[in-house]
């Protein structure tokens, strides 16, 4: 039986009071401490030897910056330390490792821990780095590794729809499903620049246990991620505390007293990524943000990708929701005048690819469902990602005029986007469970769709679409 849409439950008085208390707690200053380094670099779990939990590696404003977030038992004094992997002294960072104090910290929404944000800057391309986060009082996380890539070269990133940890209620085990899909995606890709999650990371916005399960895979400390605020994430400041996003607008898509919000942008892989909080229904604010970002940074990128949670061209039941219809009227003209190449969304738990669409939200004449899609300026393709954990799926709605390719096998999936000067290639894979006898077993991913977007007039090297991992 397929799950139906779950409305956000109203907060109890005590829950609201707790969240307000967390919100109004004054930011806690942080100062760099002297070093005492050393821990096992091989696992994310930290073996619980320190009071540091939930460390996350995030994308930065550009390829020379990486943001971080983590939870600690104590307040203040937190920092990130990093160095080139070649400078490791056994299992320890060198004593002259670079350091940066927290840029923001405060009491977490559970009133038990403190959240911390910091950034590593001045990173060099094609370099492997190691880092730790923590403080003298709480100790430090295990040494984690990540690598930077060549700026402007061929690259790729991974896109995931709704992990929604907790929605399955243990049957299915969506934490296991999320880990299985992420593991399969990383095995399929070749050194992805980033992980892009399109919202509903958790099922209950305030549930710290669900966040811990979403962040449990080691990859959340080794591959930078960017996230989107889904309708299941928005009703708490926990999202903003766990995810240290770059270039967050204070004036567009902002949250409220106890809700998360903020449109944001970054450039990576030669791609300008613009992310809007589609829980905010002020379409004019979002349009203004997209216009301003593209005007200022569009010339610095070879491709432009827009992400938000509520898919406007899905082939499932949410496509007729009033808020989705409003977005479907508002987004196409903004996407067209800013020449957005690709829009990625989640929310409806069915994979769908549109035809090339024009400024009026109509199918471009001559556009088909084939692999090669040559776009003129102002034309955009929209992808809807299904569940990446298998927590729930929705019913398919046939006969919609925007549907070029839809897959509704009730199987978790991910999309691998390869970037070059001449093309964006988006290949989508399903990740079946291990079977009734071994449901946690890792199975090979299976390709279900493949599309290449090029620009009219550009010469693109030939690609064998059948020779893909």
- What fraction of the residues are assigned to beta strands by DSSP? 25-35%
CATH architecture type of the largest domain: 4-Layer Sandwich
The biggest sheet, with number of strands, parallel, antiparallel or mixed sense and barrel status, is: 7 strands, mixed
Count helical runs: 7
- The average pLDDT is 88
What would you note in describing this structure?
Keywords: Signal. The protein is of the alpha+beta class. It has 2 domains: 33-147, Sandwich (Immunoglobulin-like); 155-455, 4-Layer Sandwich (Purple Acid Phosphatase, chain A, domain 2). The chain is 16% helix and 27% strand. It is built from 7 helices and 23 strands. The strands form 4 sheets. It has a 7-stranded mixed sheet, with helices on one face. Strand 10 (155-160), helix 2 and strand 11 form a beta-alpha-beta unit. The longest helix has 16 residues, at 322-337. The model is unreliable at 1-48 and 460-469 (pLDDT under 50).
Quick recap of the structure?
This protein is of the alpha+beta class and 469 residues long. It is 16% helix and 27% strand.
What secondary-structure arrangement, pairings included, does this model have?
Elements: H1 13-24, E1 52-59, E2 66-72, E3 79-84, E4 98-101, E5 104-107, E6 114-120, E7 128-135, E8 139-140, E9 144-147, E10 155-160, H2 174-188, E11 195-197, H3 208-214, H4 219-222, E12 225-227, H5 238-242, E13 264-268, E14 271-275, H6 283-297, E15 303-310, H7 322-337, E16 342-346, E17 351-354, E18 372-375, E19 381-384, E20 403-407, E21 413-419, E22 423-430, E23 446-455
Helix pairs in contact: 6-7
